[in-house]
UniProtKB/TrEMBL annotation:
The record marks 6 as: Important for activity. Substrate binds at residues 79-80. The gene is xylB. The keyword Glycosyltransferase does not apply. It comes from Antarctobacter heliothermus. This is Xylulose kinase. Pfam families: FGGY_C, FGGY_N.
Length: 483
């Protein structure tokens, strides 16, 4: 048996699977980030510790025999977060999260430093870890002086589980400290942000054992025998493992809180000027690339808050039948944007509202704006040489058939919908634990899920959406100077 832990921004999910990779049970616990100042987003790692304990105690009570046979644990975590430890392993301050934008100035400085993009393979975004530490050095020098180790959220969970300080390649690639091509910490990248190699965790592959579960935790959670803890993965790499998006031509579109277009890569081919993320995959010898937008279903959630209708009600008003683009246009830049603009200051908006605009029109515009922003990501991926041949649609927004058909039409690729089941980051993390325990090869363990339905682009509407996308792309440069 194996356990996958998905450490998300709003909660933790624990998934128990058997040796064939089939889910046996799951448990969830919620927590929330705090926003003490505009643009800040933080979380207390103690919340993660409490959540994993409660979830695994619940699984132990519900599945005692299976939990006694657990042989491996994998952790998926939200990326880029800066968890700072002193030399005793104590947390020095709340973790600064991926969606925290306070270090925009520091990110721009690092991004403009000679050699940084070439070594890291990426633009240095404000959400990355390196600029956060430069911000701490400048604004909280007393904290910075005590930093012995910087751990990403998943690596901190590994530390809690094992007492060892290790991190996987896929997560570490989002720090701006890793030489992503060489899969190792870069002395140059560390130096320019005021850090040193001895403040970094030991690097392991995502499917490689980094330590063993502490005996006290094993006993509390009903696990007997040695339980390995593998490197794990950043959340998107883990999701790719969960749906088998490992190699060239495979990938997914995720309609979650943020939006992602991800493509597996057989080699290292960065294109940082496009704001595409080029990261190590969670298994040796593989990489992946993704374009990221910061507000996908979060745009619909925002509209829900301001209209008083639930996201489900809004989606129902749009219906299931795609009928071409509307006149109303929406920019989903509610928290700035990553791909392709790398712009933390830009903000969202509607264009062409008139006296006859109804709530349904606004919902359709939000869905179209998100789809167009994801096409921006897809175009950037194609420019780097990535192939988008076999794409899945995943995430909460994929429950809307309208939105999935809209995406397929805007992107110009068929989108496959998995059968209902566990195919997310928690499964990917558990699969990495399976590999670490020798339960099979990458191709055997990271199999794609059964497909419920494949939704093709609507050929009759493709030209209309292409024209609408071309028009939509002109809005960003027009409003950039006004925000």
């Amino acid at each position: 048996m194996f356990v996958g832990l998905d450490l998300g921004t709003s909660g933790l999910r624990a998934l128990l699977i058997d040796g064939a990779g089939l889910p046996l049970g799951s448990a969830q616990r919620a927590y929330a980030p705090v926003h003490p100042h505009p643009g800040w987003s933080e979380q207390d790692p103690a919340d993660w510790v409490a959540a994993v304990d409660a979830a695994l105690v619940e699984l132990a009570a519900a599945h005692p025999q299976a939990m006694a046979q657990v042989r491996g644990i994998g952790v998926s975590g939200h990326m880029h977060g800066a968890t700072l430890l002193d030399d005793t392993g104590a947390v020095l301050r709340p973790c600064i999260l991926w969606n925290d934008t306070r270090s925009a100035v520091e990110a721009a400085e690092l991004d403009g430093t000679d050699g940084v993009r070439a070594l890291s393979g990426n633009i240095v975004f404000p959400g990355f870890t390196a600029p956060k530490l430069l911000w701490v050095a400048r604004h909280e020098p007393e904290v910075f002086a005590r930093v012995a180790t910087v751990l990403l959220p998943a690596a901190y969970m590994n530390f809690h589980l094992t007492g060892a300080r290790f991190a996987d390649m896929s997560d570490s690639a989002g720090t701006a400290w890793l030489d992503v091509g060489a899969r190792d910490w870069s002395a140059r990248l560390l130096e320019v942000s005021g850090m040193s190699a001895d403040q970094m965790p030991r690097l392991v592959e995502g499917c490689e054992a980094g330590g063993t579960l502490r005996p006290d935790l094993a006993g509390r959670w009903g696990m007997s025998g040695e339980v390995i803890v593998v490197g794990g993965a950043g959340d998107n790499a883990a999701s790719a493992c969960g749906v088998g998006a490992m190699r060239e031509g495979t990938g997914f579109v995720s309609l979650g809180t943020s939006g992602v277009v991800l493509a597996g890569r057989d080699g290292y081919a960065p294109l940082p000027e496009s704001a595409v993320h080029t990261f190590c995959h969670a298994v040796p010898g593989q990489w992946y690339q993704m374009g990221v937008i910061l507000a996908a279903t979060d745009s619909l959630n925002w509209l829900s808050r301001v209209t008083g209708a639930s996201p489900a009600e809004l989606s129902q008003e749009v219906g299931d039948t795609l009928d071409g683009p509307g006149d109303l246009q929406f920019l989903p830049y509610l928290s700035g944007e990553r791909t392709p603009h790398n712009d933390s200051d830009i903000r969202g908006g509607f264009l062409n509202i008139d006296v006859g605009t109804e709530r349904r029109d606004m919902t359709r515009a939000v869905m179209e704006g998100v789809a167009f922003a994801l096409r921006d990501c897809a175009e950037a991926l194609k420019a780097s040489g990535a192939r988008l041949d076999h794409m899945l649609a995943i995430g909460g927004g994929a429950q809307s058939r309208y939105w999935v058909e809209l995406l397929a039409t805007v992107l110009g690729v068929p989108l496959a919908l998995p059968e209902k089941g566990d195919f997310g980051a928690a499964l990917g993390a558990a699969r990495l634990a399976m590999l670490g325990a020798g339960a099979g090869s990458v191709d055997e363990v990271m199999a794609p899920p059964p497909i419920r339905e494949t939704i093709a682009p609507n050929a009759a509407l493709t030209a209309g959406y292409d024209a609408a996308y071309t028009s939509w792309r002109q809005i960003y440069p027009a409003v950039k100077g006004l925000t």
